[in-house]
Design brief:
globular; mainly alpha; about 0% strand; 3 domains
């Protein structure tokens, strides 16, 4: 991972010196240049592709017609989505189509080989869609190409977020140097490194039984439960650790970016969990998938569909495989059930004050158990996931 490379931190230091050495109006150029250099170093074959996509989208979106022409708006959004689908999902789609054709005794089409995915394409695409939609809505401040490129190529968040918002990012570029940002940023980076290199790497030793089919079949159910809980902790400390490092690195430049985690495993419901887990992704999905589908301002059945579809998109975004989709859909179904409970049943249930600590604890344990169990669909292909579930519950 980049953040464990000495060169990465050398790069951060050089970019930091250059950023504060120039006048404020030049800083967007420095950040854009640093981001392009970073992308070139770690994903050289694709920097021209991503650069061309960004420039094309910028040119089209800056057209005065974007606010009035729905066909142009849809075309630009489809352009951004199309690049992501081609590189990340073409193999999955061709495999699925071939399986469907075989059901009707048709010979399968030639398989599309899995393509090498450009670095950070998923994050770049989601931020690009945000930019396109908000430009059409007219909610973004006046800006130039260097501001757009510094936002899109901002290297601390390129690899794994958090997902930024342009209207919050751009004003941060005008802040003067403050020593407290260096202190706060460095402290946050150290917390992130501790999470990733100490906690995640140490706990990961307990995950080994899940790494092979043989390990799953030969390991006792109790040990498999321990391994699955360990995996859930590993993915949290690893991902939140990276977010801490990204947030801390951005703070070194005086830039505040969104928080991504707020103790999600202390959640008392699945709805609360998704308000605490990968927060920037959850907000993006709510704004650009859930609300356009109709959100909750519709019937209970349609709201349930909107929740399930939105979490299905979340699963697909995490990986080009159907087991990720099943993972997302399972959370969507639970969100729909929770919403029905909160609307219909919860108001009628009166819990004595003395029992609330116990019921709160049970709610936390129940939510955590659901999250842990559904991780099997995040880790493994569908067949292996069902095998693991069978071993966990001794089917």
């Amino acid at each position: 991972m980049f953040i464990t490379d000495f060169f990465y931190w050398f790069f951060v230091g050089a970019a930091l010196i250059a950023y504060y050495a120039v006048p404020v109006r030049i800083r967007p150029f420095v950040l854009a240049g640093a981001g392009i250099a970073f992308y070139s170093l770690y994903a050289r074959p694709f920097v021209l592709l991503i650069g061309a996509e960004l420039l094309l989208v910028y040119a089209l979106v800056r057209s005065s017609r974007i606010r009035s022409s729905r066909p142009l708006f849809i075309t630009v959004v489809l352009l951004a989505i199309g690049v992501l689908v081609y590189f990340k999902y073409s193999g999955m789609l061709s495999d699925t189509l071939n399986e469907l054709l075989r059901l009707f005794d048709f010979n399968g089409l030639p398989r599309l080989e899995n393509l090498l995915i450009p670095l950070a394409l998923s994050y770049i695409t989601f931020e690009l869609i945000h930019y396109i939609v908000e430009m059409r809505r007219g909610t973004l401040p006046e800006h130039k190409l260097q501001h757009f490129l510094s936002f899109s190529f901002f290297f601390p968040t390129l690899v794994a977020g958090p997902i930024k918002q342009f209207q919050m990012f751009m004003p941060e570029l005008d802040k003067p140097f403050e020593g407290r940002n260096l202190v706060a940023g460095s402290g946050r980076i150290l917390i992130g490194l501790f999470k990733k290199l100490v906690l995640a790497d140490t706990i990961n030793l307990l995950v080994q039984p899940l790494n092979t089919q043989q390990g799953i079949m030969q390991t006792e159910p109790g040990v498999l439960w321990l391994a699955l809980v360990a995996y859930s902790l590993v993915i949290y400390f690893d991902f939140s650790g990276y977010s801490d490092i990204a947030i801390g690195t951005a703070r070194l430049f005086g830039i505040v970016i969104p928080e991504n985690f707020r103790f999600p495993y202390a959640s008392r419901s699945i709805a609360e969990f998704w308000n605490r887990w990968h927060i920037s992704l959850g907000k993006w999905l709510t704004k650009y998938v859930y609300f356009p589908l109709g959100g909750s301002r519709t019937t209970q059945l349609k709201t349930s569909f909107n929740l399930i579809a939105t979490l299905g998109v979340s699963g697909l975004w995490h990986g080009a495989s159907w087991h990720f989709v099943v993972w997302g859909l399972s959370h969507g179904v639970m969100l729909a059930i929770h919403r029905l409970y909160a609307k219909k049943l919860k108001p009628a249930i009166k819990i004595p004050r003395w029992a609330k600590p116990a019921t709160g604890t049970l709610a936390v344990l129940g939510t955590f158990t659901f999250v842990v169990v559904t991780r099997v669909f995040f880790i493994l292909p569908l067949y292996e996931a069902w095998v693991l579930l069978g071993r966990l519950f001794a089917w």
